[in-house]
Amino acid sequence: MDAMMHTAANEIGYVVGGGLEANLQVRLTVPPQEVQEGSFVVIDSGGWRFYGLVTDLQLGSTNPRFADEQSEERLPRQLAELLHGQTLYTNLAVMPALMLERGPDLETEEYSLWKNQHPDEALPMTVKTVPSHHSPVLLADAADIAQIFGKENNQEIFCIGYTREQGHPVCLNLDKFVKRSSGIFGTTGSGKSFLARMILAGLIHADHAATLIFDMHNEYGPDSSSSDTGQAVPGLKGKFDAKIRLVGLGARTSFGKLNADFTLEIAQSDITSEDVLLLTQALNLNETAPVVLAALEREFGSSWFSEFLNMETGSTEQDENGKSVPAPNSVEFWANGSNVHPKSALALHQKLGRLQDKAYLTAAASTKGLDDIIENLENGRHVVLSFGKNNNELDYLLVTNLITRKIRDHWETKTENFHAGKGKEPRPLVVVVEEAHKLLNREMASQTIFSTIAREMRKYYVTLLIIDQRPSQIYDEVMSQLGTRISGSLGDEDDINAVLSGLPGRGALRGMLSKLQAKEEALLLGWGVPMPIPIRSRRYDNSFWEALLRDEQKPTSFEGASRSLGFGDDDTD
Q: Where among 326, 356, 386 does a domain terminate?
């Protein structure tokens, strides 16, 4: 059957005007209640099919007096109905997004043959022309949606939700999703954590990339409960036990009945001055801190942290003249000998004392925990680092930056060795961070390793998945690097503008994003999807897990997955 052959029931109107810069105008031929903002529509015109999004519904009339008066009370029913179809009407504003040369229906054998014979024509392209006047406009059916967004296959094509009108599946291409850094946004209670869990489940199931999840609030690894309903929420570890390593921060970390696969401790010698400066706001460091830190590293090298905190404060001794002077083991003595102002050194010493009692920081920590994380990620497993009780901002900033910096260095080395013919191709890695604005705000972005990953690390097989409720607080340069953006409801205008920054059709999409229903709807945007579309989110429940795990498939090799993702190539798109 030709792709032109939609059912008459799907037809909702015809094109009456508009253009590429402005939205197309469509005269509605069905009751306006049958169409809503965000509806995905198809326009058939000659040898082409156009795909667009309804951005507005507008009431109009050929004669204003008929709009002001209730014609039904003055005229026969048949005449009133005719009036509402002609003199009184509804226009749709449709944002054209894609165009596609017609071929056989997607569900037929003829389509596969045609696609092989016409590979270029079978791919949607950006709209470069307009449909003809009176071209029929139809609500997209399931085949249309699959044509653009793909059909779920439990591999790279993953169902994330459904069209809001008719419930047709809308899929996310996981290959494209992990090729660039991505973001999931939404206010507290909007369902962004469920969206994140669902997408991570799809990524882990498909095994196209390793994932390192910094689980600040212990939501992703162990089972938890909904803050709203109290109902049990399955964690990823329970569903993918063999694929996931649950790592606890600090010795003897446990999660109720679920024990960590291993724990992570960090040696004090791993802490650099850059790690401390990242904590400037959290520790309320003053402007002299960089000078003191530089002096400490010059003198003590990697052992500066322990050497400094082992110094005493205020201890004195008598010199040969009987005068009280700083004792040799004091902060003041070291400061005087290092051309550092003693008050500046004392202030830093006092503030760094907040880190001294952290259970996960040890004087001589084994590197085994970090080595185990890297080894598991390299070998096809996924790692959830749960912070347990160490879930305040100070812990999160220090640990995520320090661990990610070391893993970044490792992946860079592996990539360089691979290009030099000295090793295997690195496994693609997605680093998942919650509360991303704490790491990637304007003040912090230049200091954290995460902004470097967003800008540069794709060529080293590392991308970010950031999850946040305040996208407006994320540095705009980082936001511009996000390929795919998935947003639940956002109430703040600045947050809405941040999610839409750099995207075409922002004006039309702004209203759509502001009207999303919390916990039920999301807007898919950006490079990772062919065109924007609002969806009714798939529910993160038992039926989701049954469908996902019904047909467990062997994971693809990471070498093949890497090449299919385009990592390590020279393109700059």
A: 356
Q: Give the model confidence (pLDDT) of 544-560 as tens digits.
A: 999 888 755 444 445 55
CA distance 478 to 482: 7
Give residues with Cβ within 8 angstroms of 143, minimum separation 6: 3, 105, 106, 107
Angle value at C-alpha 49, between 44 and 54, nearest 5 degrees = 80
Q: Nearest CA to 541 among 198, 172, 155? A: 198
Q: What is the DSSP code string of 68-118? A: HS-GGGTS-HHHHHHHHHTTEEEEEEEEEEEEEE--B-TTSHHHHHHHHH-
DSSP H helices in 241-392: 273-277, 280-283, 289-300, 304-309, 331-337, 342-356, 368-378
Average pLDDT, the chain: 84
165 assigned to some structural domain: no
Query: Residue 467 phi/psi, 5° resolution?
Result: -125, 125
Is residue 571 in some structural domain?
no
Q: Any idea which of 148-157, 343-352, 401-410 has the lowest mean pLDDT?
A: 148-157
Q: Tell me, yes or no, whether 234 lies in a domain.
A: yes
Of 510, 465, 474, the closest CA to residue 491 belongs to 510
Count of domains forming the chain: 3
pLDDT tens per residue across span 469-499: 999 998 888 888 888 999 999 988 999 999 9
CA dihedral 474, 434, 545, 151 (to 10 degrees): 20
Q: How confident is the model at residue 120 (pLDDT cuts 50, 70, 90)?
A: low
24 and 132, same domain (yes or no): yes
Range of the domain at 195: 172-265+366-559
The CA-based dihedral angle spanning residues 110, 113, 115, 116, taken in that order and rounded to the nearest 10 degrees: 180
